[in-house]
Design a protein that fits this description.
Helix content is 25%, strand content 33%. With 404 residues, it is an alpha+beta fold. The protein has two domains: 21-215 and 317-403, no CATH class; 219-313, no CATH class. Helix 1 (32-43) packs parallel to helix 2. The model is unreliable at 1-16 (pLDDT under 50).
């Protein structure tokens, strides 16, 4: 395994193009209005702002936060969401706000929102995609950034809806909003509104290349196994045995995880299942909870009946190795250009594996690959990265978007 901290030497990035610029502002001020004002002020580093992307703690007075941001950038399109932790350049924090601004005529932007997503997940994906899909001919490099609510249901359906409209020509990236591990309610931000159960999105089009990197860092434990009965988000049997029994046995789970729902949830956060017949790279799936009565597993997204799943585990080094891989993949796609900014959509479960020291190492690693450019991101409840094929929803994964 390569040294996860062996990133390329730091270089001085080009001065922001008069046609394109990106900047990040961050504040941990406990006052929502003050935090929003400070973060957006730092992010507005140039003229002609085209898009603001906001990641923030759910503990803030969100209307006050947005009011402060809108006051300094009136009329600038805004998307955002609450988090399970925020990432700003070489640090990861909680109870803070991170604002990323894109500006200049070298960028073009379109935004959209679809409410009541939980009752129409695929339709919500289609609705946002239809609003974003018209191309900008003068800006050939395009990506759709989607921020959603994982608590609203199977986000695979959202991706299927968006892909059905936009097709393979426009990649999808993003993540699911968080609420600092409470798992009760998350919020999405759209212009001056605080929303819930909503899919928000932005089409970011650029004159210069964009790059996307995706890695999860989990390793298989033993051989894969057949999903013999599942429906939507629930897995009932694996190799014709109760899924819960097989899961607990394969991981040799502690006694408390076999009877206590809270202990099981803590254990499963760092023991996902992997999809794929030949490898685990088709995606990791978070096991959200267990039904101790019927022996089934409740997943955060669909696990198809008749498919193969792997049992996955990881540690600090494997997770950091994946971080380095995702960053390299994203930056390498920029055709030799230095990035203007990196956006990181990082699973909250990876944060639990890393611990405080590992989190510090990860944020330093991402910043090193940014070559001096700012970094913004958040810890999410699910990650979106559709770069090829129709699949694109991930759990327990890092997705990096590099913008040049």
């Amino acid at each position: 395994m390569s040294d996860p901290l062996a990133f390329p030497p730091m270089s001085v990035p080009e001065a922001p193009s008069a046609r394109r610029w990106a900047a990040v502002g961050h504040s941990a001020d406990p006052d929502a209005f003050a935090a929003g004002s400070a973060a957006v002020s730092a992010a507005l580093a140039g003229d002609d702002p085209k898009l603001l992307v906001v990641f923030c703690a759910d503990s803030y007075d969100l209307p006050q936060l947005l009011s402060a941001i809108s006051r300094q950038a009136p009329g600038t399109p805004l998307i955002g969401c609450t988090t399970a932790g925020e990432i700003a350049t070489a640090r990861a924090t909680t109870s803070s706000v991170v604002v990323t601004a894109f500006g200049g005529p070298g960028f073009a932007v379109r935004t959209a929102a679809a409410p009541h997503a939980s009752t129409r997940l695929r339709e919500a994906g289609e609705e946002v995609a239809e609003s974003l899909a018209e191309p900008f001919d003068a800006h050939p490099y395009q990506v759709a950034i989607l921020l959603s609510d994982a608590l609203a249901g199977d986000q695979v359906e959202v991706i299927r809806g968006a892909y059905g409209v936009m097709g393979a020509t426009v990649p999808l990236v993003g993540g699911c909003a968080g609420d600092d591990f409470k798992l009760s309610a998350t919020f999405q931000l759209f212009d001056g509104e605080v929303l819930s159960d909503t899919l928000v999105g932005a089409l970011l089009a650029s004159e210069a290349p964009l790059g996307i990197g995706v890695r999860h860092g989990w390793r298989p434990v033993g051989e894969p196994i057949l999903v013999t009965r599942s429906a939507k988000n629930r897995v009932y049997t694996l190799d014709d045995r109760p899924a819960l029994d097989v899961y607990l046995e394969r991981f040799d789970a502690p006694a408390e995880a076999r009877t206590d729902p809270a202990a099981f949830a803590q254990f499963s956060m760092t023991h996902p299942l992997g999809l794929g017949r030949r490898s685990t790279e088709d995606g990791a799936r978070y096991v959200a909870s267990a039904n101790f009565d019927d022996g089934s597993l409740n997943m955060i997204a669909e696990v198809p009946q008749g498919g193969i799943v792997w049992f996955l585990e990881g540690d600090v080094e494997s997770v950091l190795d994946a971080t380095g891989g995702a960053c390299r993949e994203a930056v390498d796609a920029l055709d030799g250009r230095d990035p203007l900014v990196l956006l990181a959509f990082d699973c909250a479960a990876r944060r639990l594996v890393l611990g405080e020291e590992g989190i510090e190492r990860e944020t330093e690693l991402i910043a090193g690959h940014a070559c001096g450019a700012p970094v913004a991101g958040f810890y999410s409840y699910g990650e979106i990265a559709r770069t090829r094929g129709a699949a694109g929803f991930h759990n327990e994964t890092l997705v990096v978007l590099a913008v040049s």
